[in-house]
Amino acid sequence: MGKIVTDNLAFVRTVQTMGVRTNAATTDLSEILPEDVEEKVKEAAEISMGTEVADEDILNISHLCEQVFLLGLYFIIIFYSQIMCCFL
Question: What is the per-residue pLDDT for 88?
Fold first, then answer.
């Protein structure tokens, strides 16, 4: 999925929303991904031969996604703060 969804924030939001790959067909990702990318993610999940993930691993992955998402937002805030300082 990393080759299909290249934006880090969109990737972690997709993982958080979908959960495990078996939920891909029933998960609405339209608010996160463009329609063509959403279709590719769902197709990849259907044909994926990946192993099943333990519940503890899912919790750890979810926690990591949350941290990546918050860091991404933090960097956006810092970036725009620096831009605004240039105009003051």
Answer: 65
How far is the C-alpha of 84 from the C-alpha of 53, rounded, in Å? 44
pLDDT digit string, tens, across residues 22-73: 899 999 999 999 999 999 999 998 888 777 888 899 999 999 999 999 999 9
Is 24 within 8 Å of 18 (Cβ atoms)? yes
| 32 contacts 10 by C-beta, under 8 angstroms | yes
77: exposed, middle or buried (C-beta count within 10 Å: 0-12, 13-18, 19+)? exposed
Q: Please, which residues have CB within 8 angstroms of residue 5's CB and are 6 or more apart in sequence?
A: 11, 14, 33, 37, 41
CA distances (Å), origin 50, targets 17, 68, 85:
19, 23, 47
Question: Of 20, 49, 24, whose CA–CA distance to 39 is shortest?
Answer: 24
